[in-house]
């Protein structure tokens, strides 16, 4: 799919096509043979009827023909409603997929219940359409249910009325009735098949529309091994989609093999777009892109596969121990492997949930390095890692002396200090390459590049602000750069200007008392190595690295509690009334056949003398019998309408209730559940399983009820007319029971396994869509297609096995049916006291049992296998919830918190019961208005501190007090709505920019524009065609990472509270955006308490106090100056490792 198609089809919608539409098509294939065999059965029965009863059969045929336009009208109506239903379902699943991906952010903002209301509104529309479909089913069902009787009535009435001499004897009546009864199952099936066909027709249209969406141009980037250059673009003009203006113009580049090229420029100038153009990910308006050799791509936001860390690095390539070890060392991952529970066998959750931003980026770099490609495209990978790690990676991997020194490398960067060491620099402005050349050549020109460097070095963009002190070696590089620029551009600066770097170095030496040069070999703990005390077995390591458990497969019978819950959701009284009226309908149907038996067995009617001598009496009696027979039909119509009303409306209510309970539980589930449950599993339930409860289960239950009543009434009629048949019935029932005992558990378990093996398909499919550009860049598309084919094949093995078991059942049931017909016929003939009418009645019912019993068991099996969906949804509806959102008796005052004082008292917590404590005896007091930094090694408990503040994890012991209020005693919503967080990952939802800033219209446009101005987004938003109503793509995909983080900053400014938490909010953005964010925070939140979870010491060096954490404990808590003054402090050693002191 190209970018234009992605605007119309989000990942959620595509998953819905796979989970619902493909499944509907698959289900139709089971009934496909019936599409031709059912009409064939109907035609054959009509021919035999003509032979038996003559032209009177045409009256019945006319009734069938009259019903065609009646049904056609409702079929058309149903098709439109099914299309509407699937569109609404798309919207619901799209929203739910995005919400599940951003659930952590929703909980931190206290937005989950408001977003739940959005989903509920969509679901309400869906239920409205389902109710309309139910009314259509009522009309169509009534038509198909009474059709056999109306056809029989019309035929008998015509036969009696066209000629007064016509006698309806037992032979004619019951042969005709038998043939009409044979029509009953095909006619019932025809209605169901038509419903399935309509659903499948709608699904085929939707799948077709998706498959016809435009694809990426395969010639967007051409591979040519004979090309003179490694990478070249000639006269290139590119856009993201056809409706948008070009974002890259007049691009001409020729990159020789083995060179290191950097691309620099301001935010939004087109740097990432240039990389996308080289990958063939953009719409090429004109020009050509040529690539010589294989590509490795490191995107700005690292993409992680749901797999082990090792397999994320290998990425399908064979394991080479030497290369793998060198890759781990070069990408500074050694220490991380020791900290992670299973080392490199640790399972990485969806979107790398259990890795930090820096770790994800280094794994992404390791994947590229291990691939041993010819060309490497780096889209600003160093902005997400600490400066000393960035330096290590540049020198060991990317730079002129790194392990890729002989490869072609294109590096998008904001780290201007690397520029003197690269072969060539491309300067971009507004989608054009404005300057190019070596570092020295560009400085001599004194053009845009020199000014760009000066802006970076003088305004403190990057790591140049007072609070962010970079590595010593980087600092010296920049000082030399400044001297060179200053000499070349001295006419720009005033004579009184001092080199800002020298000035800042002076300030730093006064802070630390120490200044010096740190050699590159001194790395932080993130690349130091400790020996493990004991060598663990492979199985132990794999077990420790497991993040998620295998999905539970139910065993044995469907628990009665599941059926009870389903009936309870439907409303027991209404559902029982529906069943009661269906029993009355079936009783009327059986009663009409007994009346027919009485009619044909009447002595006067069969007496030729009475017929000749009392013509009018004979006719009147015939008409009386016919009239009463007709009344039975009227009663059936009334009963089936009342039954259908109760039945369909109750089951739509059941679907509504079950979904509402699931939705409530998911939105109230703790984050531990979300972190350890793949989204594919949840999506499987909210899409496929809910679709089964909405559409399939009611149909299957209806068919089972119909066939069960037919079988019951058949056995009842045969037993009444031929009592001796009961003796044969007992062994048949035992045989039938044994078959059922063998078949149903097998079929049920196959369905369960099939459901469980479906979840990995959705998970794989969803993550493949998200990482499509990375997968294509590595040329791994075919491998991923084969992976999903393998997963589909595994799923289909069980699906096919269930169909085979179905056929086994069919053969055995046909055998039973034949025995029943044979026994009924023989016993009826042997009984000397049985009348012709009774024999006809007995045999006519026995003949229809063959199809009925077969369908009953099949529907019983389908019922059990489909009710598995109810079981699976109920499983997720009983997850433990978080604490109450609001506690009416204990709500904080409206102006709370007014000071911003935070205290932890003997605080201990663990992520889940049974796990070790992550915080151990935390005691600390933060004063109102203080700026506090929290630092520590990976795994020290920094992030756990902020999670406790928002109660994403609850205490095992102790408490947190904010301005005199014990936060464990108030509702979660009352707490979270009074705190503000700027999270590390910028999460946006598809919808307008305004909706992303203010989802619930709480603020005026003026307030929103003020927040946009403060977050430096106003010029960008004003330049958009719809300004604040501009539609953001899924996850904000049509905004750059920096722009997304600034939108999150604007969101934070809008809900400004007394306490602000920064979860290393600038770890994944470029230096320019970092500077803008820090600048805004300092002015807009100057009176607030700021708590920063820092991965870089530089960020918090000017804070009031710093908390140093280790092994879940606070080991140091003082001002940075005091901690730096103590050379034995952990803070000092960490500052030394980061190059702040020597």
Automatic annotation (TrEMBL):
Catalysis performed (reactions): leukotriene C4(in) + ATP + H2O = leukotriene C4(out) + ADP + phosphate + H(+)
ABC transmembrane type-1 domain mapped to chain residues: 1-199, 576-865
EC number: 7.6.2.3
Location in or out of the cell: Vacuole membrane
PROSITE patterns assigned to the protein according to its UniProt record, in alphabetical order: ABC_TM1F, ABC_TRANSPORTER_1, ABC_TRANSPORTER_2
TM regions (residue ranges): 28-51, 57-76, 133-162, 174-198, 573-596, 624-648, 724-744
Domain of life the protein comes from: Eukaryota
Keyword Nucleotide-binding annotated: yes
Keywords associated with the record: ATP-binding, Membrane, Nucleotide-binding, Repeat, Transmembrane, Transmembrane helix, Transport
Main location: membrane
Region (Disordered), start-end ranges: 492-517
Membrane topology note: Multi-pass membrane protein
Database matches in Gene3D superfamilies: ABC transporter type 1, transmembrane domain, P-loop containing nucleotide triphosphate hydrolases
Top-level EC class: translocase
Cellular component GO terms held in the UniProt record: vacuolar membrane
Residues annotated as domain ABC transporter: 231-455, 902-1136
A molecular function (GO) term: ATP binding
PANTHER family reported in the protein's UniProt record: ATP-BINDING CASSETTE SUB-FAMILY C (PTHR24223), MULTIDRUG-RESISTANCE LIKE PROTEIN 1, ISOFORM I (PTHR24223:SF443)
Family: Belongs to the ABC transporter superfamily. ABCC family. Conjugate transporter (TC 3.A.1.208) subfamily.
UniProt-recorded name of the protein: ABC-type glutathione-S-conjugate transporter
Protein species of origin: Patella caerulea (Rayed Mediterranean limpet)
């Amino acid at each position: 799919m190209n970018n234009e198609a992605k605007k119309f089809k989000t990942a959620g919608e595509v998953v819905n096509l796979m989970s619902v539409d493909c499944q509907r098509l698959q289900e139709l294939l089971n009934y496909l043979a019936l599409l031709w065999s059912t009409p064939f059965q109907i035609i054959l029965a009509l021919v035999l009827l003509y032979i038996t009863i003559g032209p009177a059969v045409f009256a019945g045929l006319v009734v069938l023909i009259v019903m065609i336009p009646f049904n056609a009208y409702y079929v058309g109506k149903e098709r439109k409603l099914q299309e509407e239903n699937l569109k609404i379902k798309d919207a619901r699943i799209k929203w739910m997929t995005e919400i599940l991906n951003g659930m952590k952010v929703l909980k931190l903002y206290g937005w989950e219940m408001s977003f739940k209301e959005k989903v509920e509104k969509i679901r309400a529309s869906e239920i409205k359409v389902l109710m309309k479909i139910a009314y259509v089913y009522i009309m169509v069902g009534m038509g198909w249910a009474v059709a056999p009787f109306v056809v029989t009535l019309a035929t008998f009435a015509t036969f009696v009325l066209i000629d007064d001499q016509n006698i309806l004897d037992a032979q004619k009546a019951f042969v005709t009735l038998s043939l009409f009864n044979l029509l009953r199952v095909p006619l019932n099936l025809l209605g169901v098949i038509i419903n399935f066909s309509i659903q499948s027709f709608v699904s085929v249209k939707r799948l077709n529309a998706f498959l016809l969406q435009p694809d990426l141009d395969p010639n967007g980037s051409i591979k040519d091994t004979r090309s003179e250059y490694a990478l070249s673009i000639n006269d290139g003009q590119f856009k993201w989609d056809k409706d948008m203006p070009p974002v890259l113009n007049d691009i001409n580049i020729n990159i020789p093999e083995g060179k290191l090229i950097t691309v620099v420029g301001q935010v939004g100038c087109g740097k990432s777009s240039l990389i996308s153009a080289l990958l063939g990910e953009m719409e090429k308006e004109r020009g050509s892109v040529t690539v010589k050799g294989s590509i490795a791509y490191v995107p700005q936001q690292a993409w992680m596969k749901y797999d082990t860390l090792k397999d994320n690095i290998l990425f399908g390539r064979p394991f080479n121990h030497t290369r793998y070890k060198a890759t781990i060392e070069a990408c500074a991952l050694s220490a991380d492997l020791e900290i992670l529970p299973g080392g490199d066998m640790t399972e990485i959750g969806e979107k790398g949930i259990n890795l930090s931003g820096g770790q994800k980026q280094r794994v992404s770099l390791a994947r590229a390095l291990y691939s041993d490609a010819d060309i490497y495209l780096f889209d600003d990978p160093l902005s997400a890692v600490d400066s000393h790690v960035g330096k290590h990676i540049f020198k060991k991997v990317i730079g002129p002396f790194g392990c890729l020194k002989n490869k072609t490398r294109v590096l998008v960067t904001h780290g201007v200090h690397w520029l003197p060491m690269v072969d060539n620099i491309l300067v971009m402005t507004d989608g054009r390459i404005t300057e190019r050349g070596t570092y020295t050549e560009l400085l001599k020109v004194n053009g845009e590049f020199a000014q760009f460097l000066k802006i970076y070095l003088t305004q403190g963009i990057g790591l140049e602000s007072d609070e962010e002190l970079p590595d010593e070696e980087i600092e010296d590089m920049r000082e030399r750069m400044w001297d060179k620029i200053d000499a070349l551009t001295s006419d720009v600066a005033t004579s009184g200007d001092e080199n800002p770097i020298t000035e800042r170095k002076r300030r730093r030496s006064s802070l630390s008392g120490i200044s010096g040069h740190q050699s590159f070999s001194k790395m932080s703990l993130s690349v130091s190595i400790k020996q493990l005390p004991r060598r663990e077995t492979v199985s132990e390591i794999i077990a420790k690295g497991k993040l998620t458990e295998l999905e539970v497969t139910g065993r044995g019978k469907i628990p009665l509690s599941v059926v009870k819950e389903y009936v309870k959701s439907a409303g027991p009284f209404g559902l029982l009334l529906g069943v009661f009226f269906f029993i009355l309908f079936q009783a009327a149907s059986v009663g009409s056949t007994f009346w027919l038996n009485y009619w044909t067995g009447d002595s006067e009617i069969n007496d030729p003398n009475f017929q000749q001598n009392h013509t009018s009496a004979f006719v009147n009696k015939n008409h009386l019998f016919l009239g009463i027979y007709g009344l039975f039909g009227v009663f059936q119509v009334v009963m089936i309408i009342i039954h259908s009303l109760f039945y369909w409306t109750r089951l739509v209510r059941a679907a509504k209730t079950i979904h509402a309970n699931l939705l409530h539980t998911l939105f109230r589930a703790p984050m531990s559940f979300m972190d350890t449950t793949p989204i594919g599993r949840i999506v499987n339930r909210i899409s496929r399983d809910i679709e089964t409860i909405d559409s399939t289960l009611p149909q299957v239950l209806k068919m089972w009820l119909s066939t069960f009543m037919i079988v019951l009434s058949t056995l009842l009629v045969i037993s009444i007319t031929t009592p001796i048949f009961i003796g044969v019935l007992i062994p048949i029932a035992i045989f039938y029971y044994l078959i059922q005992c063998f078949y149903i558990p097998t079929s049920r378990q196959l369905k369960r396994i099939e459901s469980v093996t479906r979840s990995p398909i959705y998970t794989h499919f969803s993550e493949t869509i998200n990482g499509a550009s990375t997968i294509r860049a590595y040329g791994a598309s075919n491998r991923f297609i084969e992976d999903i084919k393998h997963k589909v094949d595994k799923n289909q093995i069980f699906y096919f096995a269930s169909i085979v078991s179905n056929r086994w059942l069919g053969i055995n049931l046909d055998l039973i049916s034949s025995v029943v017909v044979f026994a009924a016929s023989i016993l009826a003939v042997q009984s000397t006291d049985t009348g012709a009418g009774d024999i006809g009645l007995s045999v006519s019912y026995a003949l229809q049992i063959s199809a009925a019993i077969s369908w009953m068991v099949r529907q019983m099996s389908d019922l059990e296998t489909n009710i598995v969906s109810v079981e699976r949804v109920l499983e997720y509806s009983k997850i433990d919830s978080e604490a109450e959102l609001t506690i009416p008796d204990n709500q904080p005052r409206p102006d709370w918190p007014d000071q911003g004082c935070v205290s932890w008292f003997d605080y201990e917590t663990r992520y889940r019961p049974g796990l070790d404590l992550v915080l151990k005896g935390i005691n600390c007091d933060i004063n109102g208005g203080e700026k506090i930094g929290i630092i520590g090694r990976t795994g020290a408990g920094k992030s756990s501190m902020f999670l406790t503040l928002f109660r994403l994890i609850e205490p095992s012991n102790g408490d947190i007090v904010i301005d005199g209020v014990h936060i464990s005693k108030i509702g979660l919503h009352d707490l979270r709505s009074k705190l503000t967080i700027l999270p590390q990952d910028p999460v946006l939802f598809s919808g307008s920019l305004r909706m992303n800033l203010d989802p619930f219209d709480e603020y005026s446009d003026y307030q929103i524009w003020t927040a946009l101005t403060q977050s430096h987004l106003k010029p960008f938003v004003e330049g958009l065609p719809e300004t604040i109503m501009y539609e953001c793509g899924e996850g904000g995909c049509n905004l750059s990472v920096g722009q997304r983080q600034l939108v999150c900053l604007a969101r934070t400014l809008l809900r400004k509270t007394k306490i602000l938490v920064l979860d290393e909010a600038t770890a994944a953005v470029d230096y320019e955006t970092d500077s803008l964010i820090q600048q805004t925070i300092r002015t807009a939140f100057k009176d607030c308490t700021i708590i920063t979870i820092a991965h870089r010491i530089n960020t918090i060096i000017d804070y009031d106090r710093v908390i140093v954490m280790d092994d879940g404990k606070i080991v140091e808590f003082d001002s940075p100056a005091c901690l730096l003054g103590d050379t034995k402090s952990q803070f000092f050693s960490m500052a030394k490792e980061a190059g702040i002191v020597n």
